[in-house]
Amino acid sequence: MQFVHNRYQIGGVDALRIVEQYGAPVYVYDADRMKRQYARIKDAFSGVPRLRINYACKALTNLNVLRLFRQLGSGLDTVSMQELDLGLMAGFDPHDILFTPNCVSLEEVNEAVSKGVRINIDNISILEQFGDQHRGVPVCIRLNPHIMAGGNSKISVGHIDSKFGISIHQVPHVLKVISALDLKVEGLHMHTGSDILDAQVFLQGVEILLRAAADFPDLDYLDFGSGFKVPYKEGGIATDIEDLGERLSTRFNEFCAEYGRELELMFEPGKFLVSEAGTFLVRTNVVKTTPATVFAGVDSGLNHLIRPMFYDAYHHITNVSNPRGKPRIYTVVGYICETDTFGINRQLNEVREGDILAMDNAGAYCYMMASNYNSRYRPAEVMVIDGEAHLIRRRETMEDLLGTQVELPQLKGAVEA
User: Which residues belong to any copy of the Orn/DAP/Arg decarboxylase 2 N-terminal domain (predicted)?
Assistant: First the structure.
């Protein structure tokens, strides 16, 4: 979001005009910001001859977002059959989709195989069953490097107690399975977690995966996951993607020379590509003063944006309706019937009932984690592309809430006195 001529803009479009046209609450995505982030990571690793960026679409799966990344040349990282099918609907070639589920049944893996996508397996049991049923089908193996990385325990997935991946200590067992079943392993994968604070920790994981790769002679690619951190506050810590790109590219090229073949370097960024492109616009319903706190209560809640309550996540909040108002302290809360807080003791320009507040970094894991809690409707989504705002998901209605419910005839009669 930019402040231009005393007005806040998203991708060059006035934020208040978007609310006038599409209502509030509403998620707004700046397509140009997504393009810049994609170009940034491509440039950071331009020293690698074979580079593949797979957008981790669990961050935001709107079809228009998927199509935007397909046009940019991205592949797709998916974790469910539904994401896989959305990727196919968005026009991705099956070979450009990596299916990386966890704790799913073999039936789901079989369905993914039938659709021709790349398969990434993260446990020995499914690997053995896969080898029995799909002789000759290449596979990627997800290894757990036992590295603690990530900004929150819920999004740190590469440590020893994580459910994700096959332990690096079980590689000898994996090699026996591969030999017994004549499996073709085309790739190795790791993902340490989101919000990586220390690039050196990430590089330690890289070294672990490279050492393991030496035991797999038929590799075509190595997937190092992602988790690159974006700043949530002004001056906040972020992954230095340019420094990481230079250091990792050099090491990867050295490994390829040692390995004897030019491998493809893969990443699967999600938050890095879309987080900063998103803004969540809400309307202030009430300003409520208590003996201890001044609350700004808005027309949304944890049903639309759960990250502050679930991850203790920080989202910068701006009063876009009163940019020159006197700064005051507010706790911004939602309308859900339980503790439901977006920000505590935030300094905002004076908030009046009816003012529009904007929450930054709302592109990743925000709409995707929205729900119908309290039977509230999920909001609309808008994409700003080439300087114009377009509706890409309408606001829900009562018909949507009832669409999957099945009414029992015996309970539809008149209420007895």
Answer: 33-275
User: Annotation-wise, does 338 bind a ligand?
Assistant: yes
**How many residues make up the chain in this entry?**
417
C-alpha dihedral over 16, 17, 20, 26, to 10 degrees? -70
Helix (H, G, I), strand (E, B) or coil at 32: helix
pLDDT above 90 for 293 = yes
Q: Tokens 């309706």 identify what position?
A: 321
Name the residue among 100, 1, 20 with its Cα closest to residue 318.
1
Say if residue 311 carries a ligand binding annotation. Answer: yes
307 appears as a binding residue in the annotation: yes
Closest CA to 361 of 318, 327, 301, 405: 318
5: left (phi over 0), alpha (psi -120 to 50) or beta: left
Name the burial class of residue 276, with classes exposed (0-12), middle (13-18) and buried (19+) by CB atoms within 10 angstroms of its CB: buried
List domains and CATH numbers for the chain. Answer: 2-28+275-402 (2.40.37.10), 61-269 (3.20.20.10)
Helix (H) or strand (E) holding 87: helix 81-89
* CA pair distance 186, 201, nearest whole angstrom: 26
**Beta strand segments in 169-303, E:** 185-189, 221-223, 264-267, 278-289, 294-298
Give the span between the Cα atoms of 142 and 157, in whole angstroms.
Answer: 12
- What share of the chain in percent tops pLDDT 70? 94
Which among 227, 244, 146 has a CA at the least distance from the CA of 193? Answer: 227
Give the whole-angstrom CA distance, residue 64 versus residue 2.
23
337 catalytically annotated = yes
- Residues 234-258: tens digit of each pLDDT: 888 888 899 999 999 999 999 999 9
Name 142's bridge partners: 189
Of the listed 57, 140, 256, 337, which one is catalytic? 337
Return d(Cα 131, Cα 209) in angstroms, integer.
Answer: 22
CB 373 within 8 A of CB 303: yes
Q: Is residue 201 classed exposed, middle or buried when 0-12, 13-18 and 19+ CB atoms within 10 A define those classes?
A: middle
